[in-house]
């Protein structure tokens, strides 16, 4: 059977409608059952989709939760600026807690100045959860990103220490969720667990959502290191023998500037990004998060310690 263009668009929209409906159902369920949730918002593409879902779930009223960002101090300036601008446009409260403050107070001690800070976000996140007494945190993690995230439920229980036990998760049958928790425990809630990277970009295109400019192809000074290309910045300078080159690149994911690698690309529109994503055979984190590729900093270990 041959499917024409209009039929293909109808099927795609029906698929996105189903994913959207599932995510909105979970967001409303948790907002109704939990006393003080928060939505993790970094300015990245997945959290941008989460904001759109929250708008559809709760507008014209205010969100029943603040936005929360754990700032590593190593974020891309374009993404931080987008984060602040988008929160202001929505008129929603944005809470920012910084690793720089935790380092200055001695709460976090880096092994060296240039170390990736991703693994230390758990400490500041758990401190923020305790400070504001959040009992649920919405996140934009997806199961297709990484094998540890594929193990996690949409409603993920964290114990009184903020830790995740992959062997102790509650069943989720027929969109029924058990939200009861003991004092000190909290939920990590992942409404877009069942989405793929391609779904995210197709939804962004359909909803005409703005995203930070670094998701589109641009010229950037980079170096080759540890099997990937890394952006040159004040935080990451070439070592002896490394050559700085200007390449056409874009970022599939955004994180710590010292370990988030761009990919070579000429995709300058959403349609071109969608086509490029559909053709890719490597997950976004597998291709671009170099700190995920070492056993010491594995995603599952970090999640057990309280990571997103």
Please tag this protein with its features.
308 residues; 2 domains; alpha/beta; 10 strands; single chain; Rossmann fold; 4-stranded antiparallel sheet; globular
Summarize the structure in words.
- This protein has 308 residues and is of the alpha/beta class.
- It folds into two domains: 205 residues, HUPs (Rossmann fold, 3-Layer(aba) Sandwich), CATH 3.40.50.620; 80 residues, no CATH class.
- The protein contains nine helices and ten strands.
- The strands form two sheets. Strands 3-2-1-4-6-5 form a six-stranded mixed beta sheet, sandwiched between helices.
- A hairpin with a 2-residue loop joins strand 7 and strand 8.
- Helix 1 packs across helix 2, helix 2 packs across helix 6 and helix 6 packs antiparallel against helix 7.
- The N and C termini lie far apart (43 Å).
- About 2% of the residues have low confidence.
What is the helical fraction, as a range of percent? 25-40%
Spatial strand sequence of the major β-sheet: 3-2-1-4-6-5
Please write the string of helix (H) and strand (E) elements: HEHEHEHHEEEHEEEEHHH
The parts where pLDDT drops under 50 for at least 5 residues are 293-297
Provide the structure class. alpha/beta
Shape: globular
CATH homologous superfamily label of the largest domain? HUPs
Q: Examine the coordinates and then state which fold CATH places here, giving the name of the CATH topology of the largest domain.
A: Rossmann fold
Please describe the biggest sheet, giving its number of strands, its sense, and whether it closes into a barrel: 6 strands, mixed
Kindly report the average pLDDT value.
89
Spatial gap, N to C terminus: 43 Å
Over the alpha carbons, how many angstroms does the gyration radius reach?
A: 19 Å
């Amino acid at each position: 059977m041959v499917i024409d263009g209009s039929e293909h668009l109808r099927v795609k929209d029906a698929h996105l409608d189903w994913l959207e409906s599932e995510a909105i159902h979970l967001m409303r369920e948790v907002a109704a059952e939990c006393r003080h949730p928060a939505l993790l918002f970094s300015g990245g593409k997945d959290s941008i989709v989460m904001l759109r879902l929250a708008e559809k779930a709760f507008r014209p009223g205010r969100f029943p939760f603040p936005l929360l960002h754990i700032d590593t101090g190593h974020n891309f300036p374009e993404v931080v600026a987008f984060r602040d601008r988008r929160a202001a446009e929505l008129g929603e409260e944005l809470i920012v807690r910084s690793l720089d403050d935790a380092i200055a107070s001695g709460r976090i001690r880096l092994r060296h100045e240039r170390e990736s800070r991703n693994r230390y976000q758990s400490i500041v996140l758990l401190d923020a959860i305790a400070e504001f007494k959040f009992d649920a945190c919405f996140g934009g993690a997806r199961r297709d990103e990484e094998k540890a995230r594929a193990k996690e439920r949409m409603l993920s229980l964290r114990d009184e220490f903020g830790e995740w036990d992959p062997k102790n998760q509650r069943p989720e049958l027929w969109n029924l969720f058990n939200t009861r928790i003991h004092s000190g425990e909290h939920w990590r809630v992942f409404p877009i667990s069942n989405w793929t990277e391609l779904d995210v970009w197709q939804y962004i295109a359909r909803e005409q959502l703005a995203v930070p400019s670094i998701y589109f192809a641009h010229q950037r000074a980079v170096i080759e290191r540890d099997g990937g290309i890394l952006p040159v910045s004040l935080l990451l300078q070439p070592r002896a023998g490394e050559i700085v080159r200007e390449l056409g690149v874009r970022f599939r994911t955004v994180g710590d500037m010292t370990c988030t690698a761009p990919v070579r690309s000429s995709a300058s529109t959403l349609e071109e990004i969608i086509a490029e994503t559909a053709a890719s055979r490597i997950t976004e984190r597998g291709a671009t998060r170099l700190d995920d590729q070492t056993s010491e900093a594995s995603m599952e270990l970090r999640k057990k310690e309280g990571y997103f």
